[in-house]
Amino acid sequence: MLKRLETPEDNWKFSAGDLKERERWDDYMKYYEEAINKTSTENAPWYIVPADDKGIARYIVAKTIWEEMQKLTDITEPELDPKVASNIELYKNQLK
């Protein structure tokens, strides 16, 4: 919050109400951890991604999705409808 106040272009993100809520930080963290621990399962796990750096957060999300997708071996691409396949050249010409 202090960084928001010290950086003029981020001042709009600050709310005086945040100061009051900050007093409850320990409570928020306790219930956050409880919710994650009670709802994350082997088949539907939670992944905790730090969000203080958007670029890093996006990288972690993409990497996690990629890693999980690599575990799936029974996925196949759908087959092209024969009618669409027989008209590919027509569709290309229409788009040109």
UniProtKB/TrEMBL annotation:
Q: Where is the Polyphosphate kinase-2-related domain?
A: 3-71
Instruction: State the source organism's domain of life.
Output: Bacteria
Q: What is the lineage of its organism?
A: Bacteria, Pseudomonadati, Bacteroidota, Flavobacteriia, Flavobacteriales
- This chain's protein is named Polyphosphate kinase-2-related domain-containing protein
Fetch the Pfam families from UniProt: PPK2
- Native source species: Flavobacterium cheonanense
